[in-house]
Every structure is written in structure tokens, then in C-alpha cells.
Amino acid sequence: MTARWPLHPPPSEGEALTSWLSRLAEVYGLSVEELIRHNLGSPGRDLLDHRTSALDLNPPSVVLSVLAERTGVPLDQLRHMTIAGQVPWLVDTLDSEPVSGEAFDTYVHQDSVLLTAKERPGRQVPGWRAWLPTDPKRGPLRRACPTCQSTSAAGTFGFTLISQLPLTLSCPHHGCYLEPAFGGLGAFAAWEEQDTRARAAPAAVFVMDARTHQALRTGTVTLPRRSVHAGVWFRLLRTLIDELSGPVSALRTRSHRSVRRIWHTAGHPIRAGMVAPWHPYESLPRARQQMLLEAAAATLDLIETGEVIAHGTLASLLTPEPHRPVPDGTPPDRHYWQEAEDALNTAIALAQHDPAAARQLLATLTALTRSEATFQRIRDDLIALGIPDDHLPPTLAEQRARQIPANACHILSDDPSQDIE
Ligand SMILES: [Zn+2]
Questions:
Q1: Ligand 1 centroid vs 159 CA: distance in angstroms?
Q2: pLDDT, tens digit, for every residue of 63-105?
């Protein structure tokens, strides 16, 4: 039986597996590599490569099982500290795709947000995985919140899993930008920029990120129309980013205008300044990813406030249900078509027994026709509904000769003033 480690700090909310292992190792005066080699068997070189962070991506199940035994942290919680633990909501799968290009097509092109499907060119992106670097050597982002870093008690600060992905821009606790940092295997080393300080993120960014954090934490997201599953939110966001990064030449005039307004609001050049051939978001430099996320946040805000109209299949989720006032103490809205249908059924029932009602009904239904053929067709319909033949004038001419009111709206109305003499 595996021995339980005597002392261990618990994982913090949203923390990445390597970050927690790094804090654990520090308690024992070890490096993460030593902690894993001495306690969790002999992992391959890839697992301990701090550039690829394979431990945060998809660690072998045996590593997680031994860790669960050593620390008492449930296996499910440990899996949730890795990207593999977010499958299939954040990423469809980490396995290779059965059909080349299928993953991108399914995740990004199945739905639309701002644009219509016709305004978006199809793309072939083989081997693509949502939010993960297309170049495996590129490694994850290293970002952290300056306020969290400077105010955390000793030994408690770590990288979150989400801060490694180009999925959010801000800290959920302080609302400031995540800033680039240097770090080894899960451990914060230093800020990339020497004078890094907390910078407030725009409100629209904070709102968008709050939803993403809610998705990861609870599995659902509250949108203006209704709550949706986390999987819908991640795809909505990635689809919107794709719409904003495509060439504007394919857009209709109204969409072109919306896209220009969005980029102006975000304070960045259209398409984050890209003029080169199209590349998937995951392969773009960090600065362009940040601009696209800010533009996505601006788009969501402009759609929600009604300043930009979205035309995609998911657009309705982003606007509130239309206002339907219910007056105090008065009956709800009348359903006029239902009332008309009810009145017609009553008229048919009367006409089955009352010749005068039958003549009135036929006159009403044929009031707008001068065609004998149409008159006969409607007459036949009434006979089929059980109104006796001899209750009805045999021809249009005879109906007129009997001077039955041509407009017999009073069948459908209580208002006697509508009767024609
Ligand atoms: Zn923070």
C-alpha cells in the first residue's frame, strides 16, 4: 500500500496540476522532478518537459492514481486540474481525429454568432485542438495576476490551469489583466516585464471572463436569454473569435459595418491587424490573441446592449427575452386567431341545423369572390363539414339574388354596427 505523505497543502481553486505539485515539492525541499521520480515512478521525459507541460495536459492515469493515494485528494479533483479533465466540454477529445479537419469543423463551424454561415469561408485545419497550441513545442501560456501574486501568503500562490490557455484575459478575483511571467514546471519565477503592475481589464472583458470561469467551475453559464451548458459557451466563444479573424471581403455590408464598429470599440485594428494569410487563433502570437479576445468581449457587450445585431444561429442566446408586460388585473393578451377559429367552429355547428346561419356562413366565406368555381368549391367544403345541401344557395348568382348580406362579419363579432343592411 502506498504511504500517505505527512504534510501537503491542498490544491487551490482552478489550480493547474503542475502548480500544485510544485508547491508540494517545495514543502519537502524537492524539485517537481525529484518529487515525481522518487514518489510516482519513473515518468518519461515528455512528462517533465516544462515547455510542453504534458503533466497539465494529459498525465498518465497511474500518476494521478498514486497522487490520489499519497495526498488523499480525490481522483476526480486531480483530473479536473488537467486539460484532459475538461474533455469533452472545453476540448472535444485529446485523441487524434478520425477524419482530418473534422475537429475544427465540428467545434468552430457547426454554429455561428455574429455572421451568417454564408459569410464564413470553410477551413481545413488538420490535427487542430481547441485552445491548445498548434505547435506542441510552443508550450502553454505563463500568465498570472499581479495582485494575486503580491498578496498571497507564502507557499500558496500558483498558476491556474485556465491562465495557461488563450481563453481569458483577466483574474476572476481582482478583474486585472493576467500578465506574462516566467515559470518552470508549475512554479512562478518572475514577471516577463520588470515593472509589471496590476492593470484593470475593460468591463466587457471581465464580464466575458466571468462567464468562462463560471463555465469551468460549475459546468453552466448564465446568458441573457437562458443558462447554457459550458460546452455551448466555449464553442460560442471560439466561433465568435473565428468570425472576427476572417477576411472582411466576404462580408455583407451590414456585417462589415458591425465588424468595423466592434474593432473600433475594442480599440484595435480590424482582424487584430492581420493582413497575412489566415491562421487559426491557436497559432497566433499572444498579442494578437489578446486583441481578438478583447474584440470578442466588445462584440458580446454590443450585441447584449442592442448596438450590434447578430445574425448567427447562437445569436438569440445573447439578447434578453422580448418584454411581454402583463397588465395588473386585466386579462392577458387576446389570441385573435384562436378566437376567430372558435367563432368559425360555432358558426359551422349552427349552420348544420339552421338554414339562415348556413346562408350567412357561405356568404361570409365567399364575400370576396366573383368566381362561380370558387363559390362552388367553398360550398362543397361546407357540405363536407356536415352542412346540409339544401341549406345553401346553389349558385353565386342565386346567393346575390337573395340579397343576403355580403359582409356578414357579425358571425365573428358582437358589434351590430358591422352589419350591412
Ligand atoms: Zn488576482
A1: 11
A2: 899 899 989 999 999 999 999 999 999 999 999 888 999 999 9
In what helix (H) or strand (E) does residue 181 lie, and over which residues does it extend?
A: strand 179-183
DSSP state of 368: T
Residue 194's pLDDT is 92
DSSP assignment string, 198-252: --BPPHHHHHHHHHHHHHHHHSEEE-SS-EEEHHHHHHHHHHHHHHHHS-GGGS-
pLDDT(333) > 60: no
Beta bridge partners of 229: 220
Considering only 53-57, 166-170, 300-304, which range has the smallest mean pLDDT? Answer: 53-57
How far is ligand 1, taken at its centre, from the CA of residue 355, in Å?
83
pLDDT of residue 325: 63
Identify the CA nearest to 178 among candidates 45, 280, 58, 286: 286
What is the DSSP secondary-structure string of 32-70? HHHHHHHHS----TGGG-TTTTHHHH---HHHHHHHHHH
Residues, beta carbon < 5 Å, ion ligand 1: 145, 147-148, 171, 173-174
Cα 319 to middle of ligand 1, angstroms: 30
What's the 179 CA to ligand 1 centre distance in angstroms? 10
Cell, residue 373: 368555381
Interval between CA 171 and ligand 1 midpoint (Å): 5
Other residues' Cβ atoms within 10 Å of the Cβ of residue 32: 23
- The predicted pLDDT at position 5 comes to 77
- For ligand 1, the distance from its centroid to the CA atom of residue 211, given in whole angstroms, is 16
Ligand 1 geometric centre to CA of 173 (Å): 5
Q: Can you list the positions of beta strands (E) in 274-402?
A: none
For 10-37, what is the mean pLDDT? 89
* Confidence tier at 324 by pLDDT (50, 70, 90): low
